[in-house]
């Protein structure tokens, strides 16, 4: 599962460069055979504009949101992309400078304004970014492009037009939610976000958006906070990028990457501060696992799970088995924030420099943690995990905490299995076998990987000088096997005649079924949705 290629030509730099949007969809040249049943749209989000005027965005998560669409119909494929007309984008375009502070790039007041108006710009308070470059997914019958703040943007999945900006704070007590909600079959959607309450009280709120009501009104208006989880530290919530969900439980991993709220609230009055400046590691807390039940919704306060420090962005899957909760995830060892290594200047370095930086960074590992639900005081000091198929352990300590040790499902130095996907409709919250992911080689995405989480068998798709994106699994109609379906990934091959393509792989063995190529570079995309 480790990379078989090196990148001395450093052509990966091309996936971090600005492109123009398109005026109309362009037809793709197809090689191979696209399964006839595969009709729909692959929608993906990512950064597409990395500078405005003479100002450059600094961090990988700052570029302005570009929505991409590959349409598949009757064996034909077209590609289309548009910038989302967020306030961040429209104002940047109008003023030809960065106007709204992004994740790692500060906006400075307009130098043309007089000193009084600049002073008031500083003290008007935070203008939180709506740069929705992280993901696009359906809520009810609508599609939203999202980042991790309280602003989400409704888009038309056909025309890619921007429809409206929605402020979640109007409906929910959250400061933001993750870009990775969970959705049940009936359309019920769950998410988690930080909540900075009154009197500086802090919590993580799990929120629920119901399916479209009978009267067809907007389900977001009916959203509610389902359950509140406490923060390990007053004034310092942890960064949360995703969470786990089984049939009956939510799994929240509180990681040692903290948001210093005092810094956050004050930073904005200092010239040049960004969201990245508000993060700090907690070197002593390790990592805490929290459980909440779904129905009735409630926090399991007596289950105090602890383990050593790791960064967590992506859960793979979680499920219940014989009184245990199995949690599979993509870990990065240690408490130093992985995002510190994702400044554009770093990922656009020459290959030898990229490799040196990745050697200093936290190391990736796919891990399985097993959390016992049934805990008895007399079992102190024993391993409580009795599942036959795992070496993961959970030991009850005298202070009532349960120390977890994981089973390693995959580990390769500086070779991450990241941006994980599963057969979501069949397997979310259920015992499963297969995870698919993007292989990062010293942070550079250069292969698509499949992992059997039960046997640890792996499969790889890789091609010289090609940079794929997160592979989305689409099941074959009527499939009975978990991996009967295809993987869709956008691949960029900078030196090729048609450098952008949609790759269709057979999910059983990662063999190529087809590719649909277009004559344009496609910058990196983070996450997306397949809309049948
Ligand atoms: C696809 C190729 C990637 C190439 C390199 C990748 C390396 C990957 C290393 C690990 C995986 C990381 C996955 C991260 C994926 C991702 O999509 O992250 C994007 C996240 C963004 C843009 C987060 C934005 C968050 C913001 C603006 C949060 C703001 C807030 C706070 C910091 C404090 C509380 C309030 C608020 C406003 C929510
Ligand atoms: Fe993510």
TrEMBL record:
Keywords: Iron, Metal-binding. InterPro entries: Carotenoid_Oase (IPR004294). Binds 1 Fe(2+) ion per subunit. GO terms for biological process: retinal metabolic process; zeaxanthin biosynthetic process. GO terms for molecular function: all-trans-retinyl-ester hydrolase, 11-cis retinol forming activity; beta-carotene 15,15'-dioxygenase activity; metal ion binding; retinol isomerase activity. Fe cation binds at residues 180, 241, 314, 527. This is Retinal Mueller cells isomerohydrolase-like isoform X1. It comes from Pundamilia nyererei. The gene is LOC102209916.
């Amino acid at each position: 599962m480790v990379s078989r290629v090196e990148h001395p030509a450093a052509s990966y730099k091309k996936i971090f460069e600005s492109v123009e949007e398109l005026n109309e969809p362009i037809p793709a040249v197809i090689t191979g055979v696209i399964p006839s049943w595969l009709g729909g749209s692959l929608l993906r989000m990512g950064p597409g504009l990395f500078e405005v005027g003479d100002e450059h965005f600094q961090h990988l998560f700052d570029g302005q949101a570009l929505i991409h669409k590959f349409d598949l119909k009757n064996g034909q494929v077209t590609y289309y992309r548009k910038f989302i007309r967020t306030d961040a984008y429209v104002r940047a375009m109008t003023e030809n400078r960065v106007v709204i502070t992004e994740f790692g790039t500060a906006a400075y007041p307009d130098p043309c304004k007089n000193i009084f108006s600049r002073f008031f710009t500083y003290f008007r308070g935070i203008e939180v970014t709506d740069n929705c470059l992280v993901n696009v997914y359906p809520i009810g019958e609508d599609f939203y492009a999202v980042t991790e703040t309280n602003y989400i943007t409704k888009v038309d999945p056909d025309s890619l037009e921007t429809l409206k900006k929605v402020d979640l704070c109007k409906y929910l007590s959250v400061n933001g939610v993750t870009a990775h909600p969970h959705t049940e079959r009936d359309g019920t959607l769950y998410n988690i976000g930080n909540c900075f309450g009154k009197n500086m009280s802090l919590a993580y709120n799990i929120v629920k958006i119901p399916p479209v009501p009978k009267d067809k009104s907007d389900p977001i208006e009916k959203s509610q906070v389902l359950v509140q989880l406490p923060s390990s530290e007053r004034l310092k919530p942890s960064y949360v990028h995703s969470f786990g969900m089984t049939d009956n439980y939510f799994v929240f991993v509180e990681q040692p990457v903290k948001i210093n709220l005092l810094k956050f609230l004050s930073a904005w009055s200092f010239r040049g501060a960004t969201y990245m400046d508000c993060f700090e590691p907690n070197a002593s807390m390790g990592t805490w696992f929290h459980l909440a039940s779904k129905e009735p919704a409630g926090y399991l306060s007596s289950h105090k799970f602890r383990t050593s420090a790791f960064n967590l962005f992506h859960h793979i899957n979680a499920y219940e088995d014989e009184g245990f909760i199995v949690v599979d995830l993509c870990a990065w060892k240690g408490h130093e924030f992985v995002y510190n290594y994702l400044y554009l200047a770093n990922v656009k370095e020459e290959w030898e420099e990229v490799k040196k930086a990745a050697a200093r960074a936290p190391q990736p590992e796919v891990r399985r943690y097993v959390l016992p639900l049934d805990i008895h005081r007399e079992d102190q000091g024993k391993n409580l995990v009795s599942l036959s198929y795992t070496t993961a352990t959970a030991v009850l300590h005298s202070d009532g905490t349960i120390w977890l040790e994981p089973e390693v499902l995959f580990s390769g130095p500086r070779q991450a299995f990241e941006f994980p996907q599963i057969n979501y409709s069949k397997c979310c919250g259920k015992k499963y076998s297969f995870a698919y992911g993007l292989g990062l080689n010293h942070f550079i995405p250069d292969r698509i990987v499949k992992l059997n989480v039960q046997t640890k068998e792996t499969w790889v798709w890789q091609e010289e000088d090609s940079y794929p994106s997160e592979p989305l699994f689409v099941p074959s109609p009527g499939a009975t096997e978990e991996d009967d379906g295809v993987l869709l990934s956008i691949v960029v091959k900078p030196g090729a005649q048609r450098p952008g393509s949609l790759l269709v792989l057979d999910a059983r063995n990662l063999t190529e079924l087809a590719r649909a190529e277009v004559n344009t570079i496609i910058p990196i995309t983070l996450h997306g949705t397949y809309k049948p």
